Amino acid sequence: MQQTSPLRSPSIDVISIQSQVVYGSVGNGIAYRALLKKGLEALQVPSVLFGCPPYYGKPHGGVISGEWFGGFLDDLIARGVMKRTRAVIVGYLGDVMQCHILANWLQRVRALNPQIKIYIDPVMGDYGEGIYVDERIVNCYRSPFLRLANGLTPNGFELEQLFGRPLSSREQTQHAAQALLNDTTEWVLVTSAPGVAQHQDEVGLMLVTRQEAQCFTHPKVKSAVKGTGDLFTALLVSHLLHGAALDAAVVAAGGEVCDVLAEAAHFGWEEIGSLRALT
Asked: Which residues form the Pyridoxamine kinase/Phosphomethylpyrimidine kinase domain (predicted)?
């Protein structure tokens, strides 16, 4: 018998749905920590649970089953949490079933809480690594699933997968990002954006909205750590939830990622350790 209570759940700033590792700074291993560091009330929902990231070799753990994954999400609705949540971040998903479960759940959540913001990082792969998720997840992202998002944060490689062909110029990148905009999706922020950086020691970003396209660059920091995209999205969302304008949030998040990477490089870390660089 389900327990009832006159009490209610506290307000939550953001729920982060992505991979979880016991050791490592990828997925919620870095995103959740960054959200807390920025003073937000955050919850995490794992799509996979590993002892460490797979780039160390085959890890212990695995994909969260559809029954468990859907159950975690349903529990948040049952406890009334989603009526008092400001934003949802979606990152790495473990299998295509999770895509379908999540799409249905996000539609239910938006019906319960029309003001909620949904931010999706369509994690599929990267330059130099190729696609590192099931091809069916890529196809799911090419479906109407992404149209549920208010904002998207693909890297350049992922934007190419969504667009269906390679991108080499600023104009092509802008055109591909604009194709993802709709009545719900207000902006697309492309990291490692093709055609933006003019020098090899820079990283380019492109922010595309319904009104304009803006380009940004920041220094390329030599660091071996992974999870920078997960960190960037978490920091971007944190600045937005604290009231920053979108372009200012992009600049602030990009600068903070550079600071964190510089700290990791200085100490020779294989993973992001302290987040002292964040204020």
From this structure: 86-266
